[in-house]
Amino acid sequence: MKNQLKVLSKALFTASLAILLSISTVVTHAKDISATQAVQTAAVEQQAIVNINKSTFEQLVTLKGIGETKAQAIIVYRQQIGAFKSISDLTKVSGIGEKVIDQNKTRLSI
């Protein structure tokens, strides 16, 4: 029974991720800012603290080792499982390991 629930949970997670990734493509291209503003914004974001329970897609992708797919996976995890209880819980998200956490440890919060 537990194995069936795990398989069902993973299938639901995968399906949700696929849907949200399709939607995110449109969202990521919705903003139109100048090149100078983009560079300035990126510099500020590279230093900003990212709350893994409240951060937006755009904030998550500023983390080292977190691209669009992993950022969306973090959001889907929060929606399906709930809030992260610790920063190390990020490793429960597929594709995120200790290396990513170590690279971003000064910028991560709960």
Automatic annotation (TrEMBL):
GO annotation, biological process: DNA repair; protein secretion by the type II secretion system
Natural source organism: Colwellia psychrerythraea (Vibrio psychroerythus)
Example GO molecular function: DNA binding
Domain Helix-hairpin-helix DNA-binding motif class: 58-77, 88-107
Gene3D superfamilies per record: AF1531-like domain
InterPro entries reported in the protein's UniProt record: Competence_ComEA_HhH (IPR004509), Endo/Exo/Phosphatase_dom_1 (IPR051675), Hlx-hairpin-Hlx_DNA-bd_motif (IPR003583), RuvA_2-like (IPR010994)
Pfam family, one: HHH_3
Keywords: Signal
One GO term describing the cellular component: type II protein secretion system complex
Designated name of the protein: Competence protein ComEA helix-hairpin-helix repeat protein
Signal peptide: 1-30
